[in-house]
Design a protein that fits this description.
It is a single chain. With 203 residues, the chain is mostly beta strands. It contains no helices and 20 strands. The strands form 6 sheets. It has a 5-stranded mixed beta sheet with strand order 14-20-19-16-17, with no helix packed on it. Strands 7-6-10-11 form a 4-stranded antiparallel beta sheet, with no helix packed on it. A hairpin with a 5-residue loop joins strand 10 and strand 11.
Length: 203
């Protein structure tokens, strides 16, 4: 208890006693289950916060991407547009006791999210014939460091710009491009090609 004693200049005295309650402060702590990944990438934040008196805590999370959370062990998914820059996110946790005592922690390690490449290519013509069975290809992809082309006829290429491809048999084909970044993130796109058969007219 705390006692307050007051005395006037005439020697008059009065006092009052009040009990003082001291509450424990919490200790904020957490660990992410993973620190990096390709977009979209989900991270679970595992709570290790402590409060000696044992009351339940209130949680306020800031995930670094303008989104918030209030769960004990939240899972948050980060997503970037394809072909953009790598992003790092600092995560903050604030824990508060029922008596208003609080503690905050900014994670020591930032969350790193790698974008997928933007896979894109153009065909000069998607309607060919056996008289002119060659298609010319322009790669417009962004953010890729390696490439895998599948021309749909058991032919493949790892060139960034294969320039063109020639078909030996008429039919419908799907050209697929997989672009892969140096972080192992990938993205794909497909375009269709039709090769008309050669027709001979007998008179």
């Amino acid at each position: 208890p705390t006692q307050l004693i007051v005395e006037t200049k005439f020697g008059c005295i009065d006092s009052v006693i009040r009990n003082t309650e001291i509450y424990y402060n919490p200790k904020a702590d957490f660990k992410p289950d993973t620190l990096e990944g390709c977009s979209p990438h989900c991270v679970t934040f595992i709570d290790y916060s402590k409060l000696k008196s044992g009351e339940l805590l209130k949680y306020d999370w800031w995930f670094g991407d303008q989104l918030l959370g209030d769960e004990v062990n939240p899972t948050h998914c980060y997503e970037l547009e394809d072909g953009t820059e790598t992003m790092e996110y600092a995560v903050k946790l604030k824990v508060t006791t029922p008596f208003g005592c609080s503690d905050s922690l900014v994670g020591q390690d930032k969350i790193t999210i790698y974008p997928n490449p933007l896979a894109d290519f153009h065909l000069d013509n998607n309607l060919l014939s056996m008289l002119e069975p060659e298609v010319f290809i322009t790669n417009y992809s962004e953010g890729g460091d390696s490439w895998l082309w599948n021309f749909g006829d058991s032919a493949f290429s790892s060139d960034r710009d294969p320039i063109s491809h020639t078909y030996d048999v008429s039919g419908e084909y799907t050209i697929e491009l997989v672009a892969i970044s140096d972080f192992g993130c990938d993205n794909s796109v497909s375009r269709g090609v039709y090769v008309k058969p050669h027709q001979t007219l007998y008179v």
